[in-house]
Amino acid sequence: MTVSLGKIGIWQHESLLTGEVAAELEELGYGAIWIGGSPDGELGVVERLLDATKAIPVATGIVNMWKDDAATVAASYHRIAARHPGRFLLGVGIGHPEHTRVYQKPYDKIVSYLDELDAAGVPADERVLAALGPKVLKLSAERARGAHPYLTVPAHTREAREILGPDKLLAPEQKVVLDTDPDRARSVGRPAIELYLGLDNYVRNLKRLGYTDEDVAKPGSDRLVDALALHGDAETIARGLNAHLEAGADHITVQASGGDPLRTYRELAKVLF
Prior knowledge:
single chain; alpha/beta; TIM Barrel; 12 helices; 11 strands; Luciferase-like_sf
């Protein structure tokens, strides 16, 4: 049973996702809940959120291949899929070389991990890959349902769609700040972006998309921050999200920045659904 995600989902660290929050997000009309922050391979948080809701799917964004072995993750997938059929999408990826001492030959790691998931009976159409560059995007089309790019812009979405082809899932993440004051909004969005400007894979991807050395130098230029953390009122943010859909995304995972993300999701729901 293929998981149906809808057009707009939310992406939040698991520490902010209680059962009560998940139930409200479902009532607001969001199509999926993506759990960020490299959730543990036992995936108890996925089961808790599914138990607390009626029909909304839950996805991982992402389980880190270096941190959690494929056998553990596969067992968790089967447990959850049996309990909540058609409601769990397994997102996996390799994380960042700066965050692990054993990070070697990342592409080979992805391939071998997918081989292990195959051997354990995890269906390819029930998993997605974290992917930025062309090589892993192509692998996402060949070995998974599609791709879940993080920290991207519509220009990347357009390129990713060309690589994936017309029939594969493309679900980019987009940060948003519900604030019409540009300086105040940038002060909220910039810290979350600056963190990734020390990671080579994200920096290379942004430069490939046309951002300059000055743009990607910490803490990030206003131009870069405005693109990666959309800000404004709900209608303005909705237009920015729609740019990803027009560029070829099937589903957008919205990550609200700031001290009250649930307020942002409530306000956005009024114009999105």
